[in-house]
Design brief:
The protein is an alpha+beta fold. Strands 1-2-3-4 form a four-stranded antiparallel β-sheet. It has a two-stranded parallel sheet with strand order 5-6.
């Protein structure tokens, strides 16, 4: 993973609230060939070796969000727009706060509103980005 992507990786602590949990996961290099072959056969995504964070909902196998490079790339258009426009920012869905983290780093951003339906996700992730 390049250094550019690392700036968007999150520092949300692991934990659980209700049906939601934040957890770290490791993609080891020896697992890489099988896992990435499976991913590439079903999509255009792959995950390089490393330690990542994911947001999981109880009963679901796939993460709702992660800070893997491909997930970060999918958010880059919104992040670039925030950097270009600044001002007030409205974010639909907190997730792991990847976009919130990026918006907080932009001096031209005057205010950030986040709409999140799950109070449990707010409990898990919100404290990482609030200064109260």
């Amino acid at each position: 993973m390049n250094e550019y992507m690392k700036e968007y990786m999150v520092d949300v602590p692991e934990g659980q609230s209700g049906n939601w949990r934040v957890e770290r996961f490791v993609v080891p290099s020896d697992l890489l060939s099988f896992q990435n072959l499976r991913l590439l056969l079903h999509s255009d995504r792959s995950v390089p070796p490393g330690t990542y964070t994911r947001l999981m909902r109880r009963g679901e196998f796939d993460p709702v969000m992660s800070d893997t490079p491909d997930e970060i790339r999918s958010h880059l258009p919104a992040i670039r727009r925030i950097r270009r426009v600044g001002g007030r920012v409205l974010i639909n869905g907190l997730g792991l706060g990847l976009v919130v983290k990026a918006a907080l780093a932009v001096p031209q951003v005057a205010h950030i509103d986040v709409v999140e339906i799950s109070q449990d996700v707010i409990h898990l992730v919100g404290p990482t980005y609030t200064s109260d």
